[in-house]
Amino acid sequence: MATMLYRLGCFAFRHRLTVLLAWCVLLGGAAATTLAAEPFVADFSVPGSGSERAQQIMDDKFPQLRGSRDLAAAQVVFQAPDGATLDSPENRARIDELVRGLRGLENLAAPQAVVDPLGEPVGAQRVSRDRTLAYVELTWTTTFDLIDEGEIAAFEEVLDRSSANGLRAEATGSVFSAERVDSAAAESVGFGIAMIVMIIAFASLVAASLPIVTALFGVGISVSLLTGATALFEMDSSSILLASMIGIAVSIDYSLFIVSRYRHEMNATDDLGHAAGRAVGTAGSSVVFAGMTVVIALVGLRVVDNPLMSMLGYTAALSVVVAVVAALTMLPALLGLLGRRAFALRVPGLRRGDEPDSADSHGARWVRRIAARPVLALVATTAALGVIALPAADLELGMDVATADQKPAIELLGKGFGDGVVGRLVVAVDGSGTSRPEAVYRDLAAAIGNLPGVATVAPPQLNADRTGALIVVVPDSGPGTTRTRDLVSDIRGLERSFLDRDGIGFGVAGQTAMMSDLAIALYGALIPYLALVVGLAFLVLMLVFRSLPVPLIATLGFLLSIAATFGATVAVFQKGWFGLVADPEPLISFVPIYLIAILFGLAMDYQVFLVTRMREEYAHGPGTDAAAREAVVVGFRHGARVVTSAAFVMVSVFAAFVLLPDTIARTMGFALAIGMVFDAFLIRMIIVPALMTLLGRHAWYLPSWIDRILPDVDIEGRQLEKYDRSAELPEDAVAVRAG
């Protein structure tokens, strides 16, 4: 591995212009694919679930409604000014103006059905008891994934005009589902903070910019390719957002590690081509295996057997692969282009970070304190993380993916009509097996109405031949709550008795039921998925470090940090502690499992980056306990600065996404940022060196029979020692010197 990557680094360094041109062409080609992009599609279906079966009943018995669930729809709620009701003449005039504006929207289905609910008997149920709130419902002839952005803008303009005239108007609904979250502001903040961190790390403006440039190319290519891929695959807009988030973080991370190693190698030779090759051969080996663990975790999301989760995993994995390739090829080409100017524009007053081993440093002082009292450090840190993890026991999963812009409408609807009005359930009934369908449908509606958690049940709507019916149920709780999920389960629990007695089958369809099924499926997949990725990554780390204790420390440390991350996220977003979230609610159902995927991969990154140098020092020593403990100190001293810098970059990038209005982005941004704090600064910086010190040489124990069957990947670069500035250099590594 090290030899192959060494040759690749030397090749990229020597043929820098060709490599950089290839990357520019690749970026241009990826950007060109966006011209064929199709709108994003949100597919929350769970194969084989109750909601999918109910949808099949609905499609069979009501073919005229087939595809209607995908039509763009909205609920527009309007509120009278303070101290007034909607019945006043001036407010009735404002309502008329709002209704006319809504009717004038393009591609609106049945615009004549959009009427003032105060003036129609059938609209009485859409007016609150205190006459201060009312709502109308709109449906477009276009599916929500194909609706034009201009149509959404026109819709929002009508609402804004009404609010400006004194009648507050807010909206929520699937019409907004295909809107792509603009993450440019968050990405800019993340890149800006990352630049500051790397200036501090390298004490050079030029060196600090190299990971940024590499990341811009990598993320630009990934996002462009994924956007263009919508022409071939259905893809949710969250895929792009999360791929961008992870792509920025790992691109900067991997480049930072290689540049740091390159600076170290420059002190050992004046042959810059050889230094670049060694940096890619050693640090690049760590990057490959670190990236491999991230990809394993992300592709492993396929085990959930859900289209949404699989696509989220595949898209993020692509961004990681591009980041790895960019770090191994584009970065050494940039180093070759700059030569020794790669560390130009020094910043006075900052440490270079490449001082000799004998020099003191913050990292060396820190690890020696840990090594002096390893038991105290281990117990105190573990106890602190354990306390933080306690709220995780109350974890609840929901599926409220409404953005912050839709929350005002949801709050007004809940205030005037109950929380369930935005999460209505549709019971699809197959009455082919009964001789008295109408009576059975009424009995079923009555039975549902007697269940806890039901606000209202509409009379059954029959199809033409009376072999099918739809019963609309309004819960008394919101769509993302446990209470609504329990109601879905209770309704389904009635089927057996009706099937045995009356010969009818039914199911709960609609988006709320689908979200409920997804939450249940993802909750059940948490433990199997965690076991899968931890098991596979354990094997990878055992191969890398040729040790059993080191992979065990890595995985147990991750389990502790993920528990603390869940605890902190539940406390802030679900329980509303510290007042950081205005509307606490259950976590979005796919956040925990996706969080495991990303955090596990990144945690293994830091384990590989930090412990590789320890392994390298130990492999060159006598193999005693004292030498093993000293290797921990020396390896930590070399790796701590770059790992700390990388962790700060990660935290900055992820935390910037908390600024976005998108619920998924905010939750994931916070969870990933706090998870990085726990894992990088507590697990990898305290618990790992403490345990490695306590174990001594036993940290590198590997049974001889396993040692014989494992291939030697040489991540510490032992085979590179034969490559010096002599004729033994391979052709691609001909000495390249730059002034």
Which helices and strands, and how do they pair?
Layout: H1 2-14, H2 16-33, H3 50-61, E1 71-79, H4 89-103, E2 133-143, H5 149-164, E3 168-172, H6 184-202, H7 205-228, H8 237-266, H9 272-299, H10 307-338, H11 362-372, H12 374-389, E4 397-398, H13 407-417, E5 425-430, H14 437-449, E6 454-457, E7 461-462, E8 468-475, H15 482-493, H16 495-502, E9 505-509, H17 511-545, H18 549-574, E10 587-588, H19 591-619, H20 625-656, H21 663-695, H22 704-709
Parallel strand pairs: 4-10
Antiparallel strand pairs: 1-2, 1-3, 5-8, 5-9, 6-8, 7-8
Helix pairs in contact: 1-9, 1-10, 2-7, 2-10, 4-5, 6-7, 6-8, 6-20, 7-8, 7-10, 8-9, 8-10, 8-20, 9-10, 9-17, 9-19, 11-20, 12-18, 12-21, 17-18, 17-19, 18-19, 18-21, 19-20, 19-21, 20-21
Structure characterization notes:
Residues 725-739 have low confidence and may be disordered. The protein is α+β, with helices and mostly antiparallel strands and 739 residues long. Strands 5, 6, 7, 8 and 9 form a 5-stranded antiparallel β-sheet that branches. A 3-stranded antiparallel β-sheet has the order 2-1-3, with helices on both faces. It has a two-stranded parallel ribbon with strand order 4-10. A hairpin with a 5-residue loop joins strand 7 and strand 8. The longest helix is centred in the last third of the chain and has 35 residues, at 511-545. It has helices at 2-14, 16-33, 50-61, 89-103, 149-164, 184-202, 205-228, 237-266, 272-299, 307-338, 362-372, 374-389, 407-417, 437-449, 482-493, 495-502, 511-545, 549-574, 591-619, 625-656, 663-695, 704-709, and strands spanning 71-79, 133-143, 168-172, 397-398, 425-430, 454-457, 461-462, 468-475, 505-509, 587-588. The chain has 3 domains: 2-34 and 181-354 and 364-394 and 516-722, Multidrug efflux transporter AcrB transmembrane domain (Multidrug efflux transporter AcrB transmembrane fold), CATH 1.20.1640.10; 50-176, Alpha-Beta Plaits (2-Layer Sandwich), CATH 3.30.70; 407-509, Alpha-Beta Plaits, CATH 3.30.70.100. The two termini are 30 Å apart. It contains 22 helices and 10 strands.
